[in-house]
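[Automated response] Your request has been received and processed.

Submitted sequence:
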Amino acid sequence: MILTGHQDPLRRLLVGSPPLAARFSAVTGFPGYTPAQLAAIFATLAVEAGFALTPAAASTAATVLARAGGHSRGSARLAVRLLDQATADQARRITAPHPPEPAAPGTILPAGIPGQLHTPDLPDDHEWPGLYL
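Generated structure:
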């Protein structure tokens, strides 16, 4: 069994339940991703999904991820969430009756990257979500 999450809440969970803690013989901590790593994850996921990312869009995404929630290190979920938001915008752009720009349908443009990451369900710093990819 593997538990993932922020170190402090997981530690409290295990300390609060010795029978549960006894089931884990090892605990390994992993650092969060840096903003640069999150930007690279975003770019990789976009390419794997079949999208081209303009350099300006990649730069915009990196900026948004760097300030997402004010965290200096974060979860890959931030990159996934931003790509979801960018591809939703992409779908709206290419299905609009009069597309505003003549970009290729598979190209993510800077205008398609939201100015900030919409994260209504992200917890406070002390409950930051687990790290995984």
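Summary generated for your ticket: The two ends are 17 Å apart (CA to CA). The chain has five helices and two strands.
If you did not submit this request, please reply to this message.
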